[in-house]
Structures are given as structure tokens and as C-alpha cells.
Amino acid sequence: MPLYVTVDIQCPVCLHHWDSMESRDEIPESFTCPECGSREATRILSAPAVKRVTYHDGYRRGDGYQLMKEINSLKTQKYNLPAEKRSDIDKEIKKLGAVSLTKKDKTE
Fold first, then answer.
1. Strand 42-43 to strand 4-10: parallel, antiparallel, or no bridges (unpaired)?
2. How far is residue 93's CA from residue 72's CA, in Å, rounded to a whole number?
3. What is the three-class DSSP state of 26?
4. In CA terms, which of 1, 57, 105, 106 is 20 to 30 Å from 10?
């Protein structure tokens, strides 16, 4: 059973661009342009994928990642509590923030 791939093709004469489904084993070297009829149309190679530096949640993984995650979790909990109980969580956030700053100072 042949496997098919989508091939990006561009004509150098009229600059027309189109896609074509071709068998992966039998991709021709040149194509005929449907616009101008030129037989010089060639395959366009796509750029390689780039490795992500950050993750889906936007943070880089490093020393302070777990601290930032915990601080954000506490901030979420804080807004789900009544006003009189928020001060305890504020103290915890400040304490974790101080630890985070201390770690930054040591690495610089």
C-alpha cells in the first residue's frame, strides 16, 4: 500500500504555488505548472522544526520553576478564599517570593 504525502510546488516562471498529493516513493523531480504550462516547476522544501525553549505553560524549566508554580497555585487559592483568610496565604506567597529572589541572587 503506497503512502502519499502533500508536496509544495512552485513555478519559477510565473511564481504560481500549489500543493499536490504524490506517492512518497515516486515524487518526480519537476512538475508541469497548471497556470503557465512550464515544466520547470519544482518542489519547495519546508524549514525544519525548531525545538521549543519554553513549555506549554510559558515557563522555562529551571531552578525557580517549582517555586513559580507553587506561588501561582497559592495566588489561585487566595482568590477562592474569604477575605479574612487571605492574609495567611499572602504571608506564604511573600515567603516563597523571598526564597525565589534569594535563588536568583545566588545564580547571578
1. antiparallel
2. 9
3. coil
4. 1
